[in-house]
Amino acid sequence: MLRGADAETVRTALRTADPLPGTAGFAGEIDGGLVRDVLGRQPLFSERDDPSTWSFDRRALSHPVRVPPGTRRTTDGDERVWTLPEPRVETDRESALSAVDSAVADAVFDVDEAGLAVAFSGGVDSAVVAAGVPDAPCYVAGFEGSHDVAAARNAAAEMDRDLRVVELTHDALRESVPELVSVLGRTNPMDVQIVLPLYLVAKRVAADGYDRLVVGQGADELFGGYAKVEKAPDDPRVDAETVRGAATEMIRTLPDQLERDVLALRAAGVEPVAPLLHDAVVRAALPLPGELLVSDGRRKVALREVARTLVPESVAEADKKAVQYGTYASRELDRLARQAGFKRRMDDHVEKYVRSLVEE
């Protein structure tokens, strides 16, 4: 009835209102109510008019309504029981880095390799989690000539890792879109473009006999990996007046993103494992000062610093594009839309194309 934690851990977290009780996220039913952890790392849904009918898969319900992160849902309604901590900024650089180093190392080396593969893009996030499971095969998806495939090949060679390339095709994109829309309940192009490569990697991983996939999710949000964080407060995409404030905004987007990614991976036949989203890593990341998030154009400063002890320096410092661009999934889905008659001059032309594939 619970995923991600045992009942006693969740009961203790409810009693003490501890939002980060030492798990990698949890959700499910306990003592007559539904609960979902503060970062929404496990998706959870109930029927719109009947909270006693629930599922981890929205497709199992007639009118699914997500349980918000940090919430306990009963027949009496929703109660917010956990909120994300707002710790004081750690001003001692070495102490801050030491906390991140310890938390990241513990999280990535504590992963059980049984039935495990790695989603590997060649960036620092996936390289760090791969370092913790040295015998697991690495997989990357992308169209021919894409940035992610080239970066993954370079990083795998530097790390002496087995890399398997999942070459994306137009047919694979067309066939996968309706399934993903059904799984996610979303048709917006950004969500679809982001999960397409992840879903197709996971399908290949499952076909190869693995049932768990380790991913680097959470690193960009926790450690300042976005351009809009680097450019705060001048970037209109964030409201914050500081880099640290902008990073906090990104952390608060995790529940929506993780619901999307976890549902897509499970639909493909694998269970995601996200070491960088362990509570200990979150606790270490939250107090980081702005200069350990972004400094002189270098993003994810703290993570890159600790990564140097785990992976080659060239990999720790490698640039990475967002998955939808690094794999060409965004570009090629747009191309397919235009070939199908949905021209760019039309409003929301890619979403219209996505909806047309579902209707077919």
TrEMBL record:
Biological processes per GO annotation: asparagine biosynthetic process
Molecular function in Gene Ontology: asparagine synthase (glutamine-hydrolyzing) activity; ATP binding
Superkingdom to which the source organism belongs: Archaea
Stored PANTHER family: ASPARAGINE SYNTHETASE, ASPARAGINE SYNTHETASE [GLUTAMINE-HYDROLYZING]
Keyword tags: ATP-binding, Nucleotide-binding
Source species: Halogeometricum limi
SUPFAM superfamilies: Adenine nucleotide alpha hydrolases-like
Gene3D superfamilies in UniProt: HUPs
GO cellular component assignments: cytosol
Statement: the UniProt record of this protein carries the keyword ATP-binding: yes
CDD domains assigned to the protein according to its UniProt record, in alphabetical order: Asn_synthase_B_C
Protein name, UniProt field: Asparagine synthase (Glutamine-hydrolysing)
Domain Asparagine synthetase: 100-233, 244-344
